[in-house]
Amino acid sequence: MLxxxxxxxxxxxxAPWFDDETAIEILALSAPDSHHAELVLTQIRRSGLIVxxxxxxxxxxxxxxxxxxxxxxxxxxxxxxxxxxxxxxxRGELGVKLGSVLGEDGTFRTTRAIECVATQDAAxxxxxxVARLEEGPDTFDSLGALSIARLIxxxxxxxxxxxxFFQGLALWSSDRKTEAAEYFRRVVAxxxxxxxxxxxxxxxxxxxxQEGQLFEAAAVLEQSISDLDDLNDRRGLEVTFCTYGRVMRxxxxxxxxxxxxxxxxxxxxxxLEYSTGxxxxxxxTLQYLAQTESDFGEYxxxxxxxxxxxxxxxxxxxxxxxxxxxxxxxxxxxxxxxYLEEIDxxxxxxxxxxxxGLALARTLNMAAAAHRVNCDLDKAETLARRSLRIGERERxxxxxxxxxxxxxxxxxDALQPESVSPQRVTEIRQLLSDARATLxxxxxxxxxxxxxxxxxxxxxxxxxxxxxGESDRQTDSAAFEF
Length: 482
Hints:
This protein is mainly α. The chain has 24 helices and four strands.
């Protein structure tokens, strides 16, 4: 039993701050009784080693950090017991008092992170932390996640599985997804059944999907869905079914496997079934489901779903995306005039809201393809070059490849006997070569086939410049990134 003042100081150092009741309960872990604990606390106060702020006290630094580490090194279980006392009391009156020194967010993160460190089954604290960090589908508060990761490492004296998880969330939300994926791999390898593992599986699946590793992504997402189902996590199931539906639609697009398209539709309907009523999530699911129904040839159903999505859009980016999806559906069912009007509408919304990111780049790419089909090649080229520049600025390799293909197709159409130059032909070949290399790296066989078709058309155009045909314009319309 630890009963000396020195050991009592080490025990109290485990807590960031404490009130009288918390201090006495922590000291009672090693004192003969609570009366003895009160006497020891009085003696510590007389020593001048305690800092007081309002109703709370703490051991003064740098002694606190040194003594806390010494307690952990000598008796890690006793250290964990002290943390558990603090964590339990912080869910009551102590938590209210802590707000005056740590602030609301600081109190929440600190107390729940300590609970995660000290408790074998910290599911409640973990779920609360994730809910607080969540900002939208697949997006989290990066600074908040980083703060939690550091708190877990600070109080646990090591980077454990949950520390890796929150570090991964911080990197993911800072758009450092490749680095984040490595942390998620470590979390997933542990195979512990909790929300951290299920979310890590989902985000790892998203990362693999973005890298073009579709079958690997599908396998990880299937495991995530299974785990989320066991955890009865409806919010997680809604998002993960949606992602899985996107992946399987991409598998269909690349391989022509009709079963993959069926699984895509089933997954997206499941995402709607598990909808938690958040408009942003449901809007996104409806857009993907509209595309999938269009792939089945169910155009009226597709237009109904995209109409619902448009009515739910709460921000310009999602609205532009939704109108672009509607345009693609209209094109697929042969309603060319409405398709062009919808593309122009999406472009207008993007311009009105001064959108400059990937949403605008994709809209410009679609608009370029639309104007190419409509034989307005000068405008098509201007839009395609703008789309490419934005993609390069955003450093989105897949969009760069798609816009390179679009631009190349437009430049091929514009080739005339009097305008053919070695420089222009070299530019077109370089665009196609770069786009093919990128999409081959993502294992996008459908995209590669489209580029190879366009390359064959270039060779044919160069050999027979006097031939004029319209049918080839439909083959390589190039707006295939959605």
